[in-house]
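hey
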């Protein structure tokens, strides 16, 4: 697979090597939790990947901060507010884990929602946005109602015109039946964060047990990776990334210091024999993958090693944010719920 370039390398996130799991963003404790739940057997067994991914999902559920994110942005203009309308919203990064902190995001006249949350043709069993329909905005101040939309020459919807249902017109505020994610455009705060690539990984093989096939290469899934360009994330991403990398570096320093002390104690009297033994450094234990979050209604994501964020190397006195030369690449760790058609590993 590696030599014939079916995958990038041994750390391609579609593989299940440890370095691949690390690059994908799977937390070490999630792997340990999964292994401890397997039990012990002397026979050869195949473990369904859904079991592994569920263990990862369960771990991330209460440890990953949550950010507003839209994979395929669709512009929304609020027609009944001023061009300079601005409301700053303080929101928790997790509804049940207050220790993860809060973020402050702007709410302005220009918003972006996910294109999949709008359709022109409405139906009784559809509760998201459509012409004349109202939806709530996750952690937003008020619902919005779509009043019209714009299309390009090919008929593709390019922009929605909506009314902010703030009750200022004296009419009852419609009660939404669904809530969707959003991000606001606000240059002064750096909102939104533009993602260069979002990589969605699917099973590498079309067979549940490729090892049992005559030629496993005949069962390579040609659609095992989807790359989405242009996704957007709330501006709280920058401070979250800085906090995550600092915490990981601190933990790595503590671990390596403790490990070196233990090795020195064990090597007393044998220093000449083991003096050149390799010792992991704190820097080797920390990579971009420690920056993890849940995109609300989208999935769990981690920063890929190819990403370049200048603010991660800047001093703590400098405000986190996008810098010249930054490249933001996200890997989906797991979906929010089990995907159909998963194979064995």
């Amino acid at each position: 697979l590696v030599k014939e370039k079916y995958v990038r390398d041994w750390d391609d996130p579609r593989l299940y090597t440890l370095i691949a799991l690390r690059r994908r963003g799977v937390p070490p404790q999630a792997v340990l939790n999964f292994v401890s739940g397997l039990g012990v057997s002397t026979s050869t067994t195949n473990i369904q990947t859904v079991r592994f991914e569920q263990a990862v999902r369960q771990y991330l559920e209460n440890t990953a901060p949550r950010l507003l994110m839209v994979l395929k942005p669709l512009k929304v203009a609020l027609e009944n507010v001023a061009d300079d309308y601005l409301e700053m919203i303080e929101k928790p990064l997790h509804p049940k884990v207050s220790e993860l902190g809060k973020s402050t995001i702007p709410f302005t006249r220009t918003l972006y929602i996910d294109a999949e949350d709008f359709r022109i043709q409405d139906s009784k069993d559809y509760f998201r946005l459509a012409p004349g329909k109202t939806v709530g905005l996750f952690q937003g101040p008020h619902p919005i109602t779509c009043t019209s939309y714009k299309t390009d020459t090919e008929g593709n919807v390019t922009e929605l015109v909506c009314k902010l249902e703030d009750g200022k017109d004296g009419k009852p505020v419609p009660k939404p039946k669904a809530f969707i994610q959003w991000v606001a455009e606000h240059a002064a705060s750096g909102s939104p964060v533009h993602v260069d690539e979002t990589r969605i990984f699917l099973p590498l093989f079309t067979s549940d047990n490729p090892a049992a096939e005559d030629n496993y290469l005949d069962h390579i899934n040609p659609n095992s990776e989807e790359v989405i360009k242009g996704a957007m994330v709330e501006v709280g991403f920058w401070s979250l990334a800085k906090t995550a990398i600092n915490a990981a570096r601190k933990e790595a320093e503590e671990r390596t210091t403790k490990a070196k002390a233990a090795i020195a104690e064990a090597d007393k009297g044998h220093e000449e024999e083991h003096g050149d033994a390799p010792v992991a450094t704190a820097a080797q234990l920390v990579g971009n993958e420690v920056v993890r979050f849940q995109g609300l209604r989208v999935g769990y994501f981690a920063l890929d090693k190819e990403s370049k964020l200048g603010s991660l190397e800047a001093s703590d006195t400098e405000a986190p944010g996008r810098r010249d030369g930054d490249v933001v690449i996200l890997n989906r760790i797991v979906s929010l719920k089990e995907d159909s058609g998963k194979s064995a590993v």
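The radius of gyration is 24 Å. The first strand starts at residue 66 and ends at 67.
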